[in-house]
Amino acid sequence: MADEMVLETQQWLNNNYGNVPGFEKVKEDGKTGWPTIYALIRALQHELGITELSDNFGTDTSNRFDSKIVPKLEIGYKSNVVRLIQYAFWCKGISPVESGGEFTEYTLKAIKELQSDAGFPNGDGKFTSKWAKALFDMSAFVLVSGGDKTVRTMQQWLNVNYNIYFGILPYDGIYQRATNTALIYALQSEEGLPPESEATEGQPFANGNYGNTTTQLTPTLQVGDSGGFVEILQYGLYVNGFYKKGPFNGNFTDKLATEISKFASFMEYDSRNALAGIADITTFKGLLISSGDTNRTAIGADTSTQLTPAQVKTLVDNGVKYVGRYLTGSVGSGSDERNKYLTSEEIDNILGSGLSIFPIYQDNYPEVKYFNKEQGTSDAIAAAKAAIKLGVPYGTIIYFAVDVDVEDGDIAGTVIPYFEGVFGTLTGSGFRVGVYGTRNVCQRVIDQKTAVYAFVSDMSTGYSGNLGFAMPQDWAFDQFFEYTVGSGEGAVGIDQVGVSQVDLGMQYVYKNTSKYPDWFFQKLAAIGIIWPMLSEVIKATIELEQDAYFDAEPFHIYTELSEKLSIGEGDNETSFNISKGEISNSFYEQLKDFGDALSLSGDDAKTELYHKLGEIVEGGVFQITPAPFKEKEKGNVGLEVKIDFEGEKEGKTGEVELTIDVYMNKKTIDDSGDDDEKDAYDKLEKITNAKDSEVKSKSAQNAFYAQFFSGFVEETSSKVGAAVLAAIALALLIKFGPIVIGLIFV
C-alpha cells in the first residue's frame, strides 16, 4: 500500500533534484525502498556541496554534515537539509509531524524517539552525522517480525557502549552481519584497541576483524570474573543457541560455565578449558567467527586430490579418521586441470587404512544461477550413478555443494528448489542427501527436510551466510581451515574438518552377493530415509542380509527379510495396494474420515509420507496388523508392517517382503514421565488389545475391536472393522508427530 508521505517525498525529490548531475530520479509509488533512500542521500550530498554524488553515506558526507549542518540545527532553522531529514523520518516510519523544512519541536521529538529506540532513553537530541547515517538507511529501528527481543536488547547495549567504533547499529532484533561485527568491535574495545580515527601512526586499532592482535589480547575467563568481556561472552552464547535465559549482566557464574561447556561439546572442541566451562580463545573465536580457532585439532579432512597410499598415510599419521572426497569432476583449467573424482583404488587405500569416506558431489561452477530443481534432479542422477559404480553402500549420505555465498533473499528461489530436485531423485536411488554450504544455506535446506545433515563451509568467514548465523544443530562436518599437511610424496593439500560423528560415512564397499536384486536394497534404504528411526536397523538388514534388531527407546524394532509370501486379508489385517507408485485413494479417504471423526489433524503434510512410500514401492502391497506376541516384548504394545516389493531389472522380476515390528516399551515410557508417549501407548494398547496379546483368537480380538469402535463401524463386517482399526490407529498416532508416524509404518 502506498504511503502518502513517502509519495510526497519522492515527488519533491524528483522536482527539486531531477536535473542535478548524478541524481537519479526515483519511481513515484509511495513505497519506501533503497532507491528512495539513495535519492535522499544524493540530495543531501548536493546540499552539502558534494559534486560527485553516490549512494554511500561516507566520510566526506559525514564530515561536511557535522561541520556545516550540526551547528545550525536549532529550533527555527529552515533549509532543504531539514526537509530531507524530515522526509527521511517519514520513510523510516517515525513521524516528524511536519515536512516543510523548518526545525521544530516536532523534529526534535522525532530525533529523541530515534535515539531512545537505539538504546539511549535519555537522548540529548543532538543530531550528528552518526545519527544522520543511521536515519538515511533502510535498516529497521523497531523490533521486526521474526526479530528477537534479547537480540534487540543486545543491539541497544552495543549502541550505547561501543557506537564510537561502528556508528549506530540497526536494532531490529535480527542477528546479522553488522551485529556480529559489532560484537567483535566490542571485544576489541574491551581489549583496549582504539577506533581507527583515534589511533596514532603504527598503533593497532579496532577493525571488526578477529585478527592476530585481537587473538593475542583475548582473555581467559572463569567463574567469578565480571565486566564487559563477560557480557560479550553471554550475548555470544545466546546468538549461538546457548545461555537462552540469561541473565546478561557481565557476571561469570556457574550457570555460564555450564553453557560454555555445552557449546564446546556441541562444536566438538578439544579445548580442556572450554569443556571445563572456562572461556578461552577457543570459546571466544568459536562464538564470534564461523571458522573458530583454526589452531584446534580435528579428525576430519576433505581434499580434491586423488590420494596416493603415501598421502593416505600422511592423513592417518595426523589423526584424520574421516576424509571427504568428490564423486565426479575435475578442478583447475587448461594446463592446471586435474581430476578430482574418487577411484576404486583410492577407496581401497583409504578404507584399508581405517579411515571413513564422506562422499561429496560438486561438478558445477559456483554461481547462484546454477541452482534450480531441474539441475538438482540431473546432479542427483549423476551422483547416484557414480556412487553405485564405486560401491558406496545404500543409505550413505552424499553432500551436495553450494560453494557460493547465496544471499538470504535468493535461497528460496535457487537452493531450495535445487535440493527438492536432489532429494526427490536421490532418495529413490537409496542414498541420503547432505548439504554443503554456509550456515544459513545448510539450515534453510535442512528446515525443508530435503537434507539430513550439514557439511558447513565455516572456512568462508566473510560469507553473508556465515556472519550472524548459528551453527546448524544437524551438522556433521565443519570445514574451518585450509593448509598442506605432510612432506615429499606424502604432502597433500586439505581442508581441516571438525566431525560431530553423527554421520559415520562410507566404511566398506558394497557388493551384492545376496539372492536379492539391487533394486530391492535401493527401495529398502529409501524407506530408512523417509523414516529416520528405521535407518540404522535397515542398514544392518542390508549389510547382514538377515533379521535385525534395533533399540531406540522407547521403541524396540525388529526386521525380517523373506522371499515373497502370500499376503492375505484376514480379519485382523489391513492391506493397501500400490500401483505405479500411487497408494489407493480409499486409504486416504479412510484416513481423512476417521481423522475428522476423532477431531484430529488432517494436515496434508502428514499424508506426504504415504505418497513417498508409494513412490518407492512402485508396485506391491503394504499391510498393518497388531504386532505378534514375542516373549521378550511381553507387556509391550506394537504394530507390524509388511511391505511387499515387486520389481523388475534387466528383464528379471522378483518379489521380496520386508516385515517390521515396532513395540513401545511400557517401562521406559512409565519411567520417562512423558505424557504424550504415555497417551499414545494407552490408545494403542486399547486399539490393539496388546495387553492380552497372548490370546490369539481372532474372533475374540474382533469382538473387542467391534465393542471399542461402536458407533464407527458395523459389528457384522469384520473386514470393514479391520480397515477402521488401521485408519483410526493411524489417525490417533499421527497426532503425536514424526516419531509416532514412524511407529505406525515402520
UniProtKB/TrEMBL annotation:
Top-level taxon in the UniProt lineage: Bacteria
UniProt xrefs under Pfam families: Rv2525c_GlyHyd-like (PF08924)
TM ranges: 720-745
The keyword Transmembrane is annotated on this UniProt entry: yes
Stored CDD domains: GH25_BacA-like
Keyword Ion transport appears in the UniProt entry: no
Domain Rv2525c-like glycoside hydrolase-like: 314-496
Keyword set, alphabetical order: Membrane, Transmembrane, Transmembrane helix
Identification of the protein by name: Rv2525c-like glycoside hydrolase-like domain-containing protein
Organism lineage string: Bacteria, Bacillati, Bacillota, Bacilli, Lactobacillales
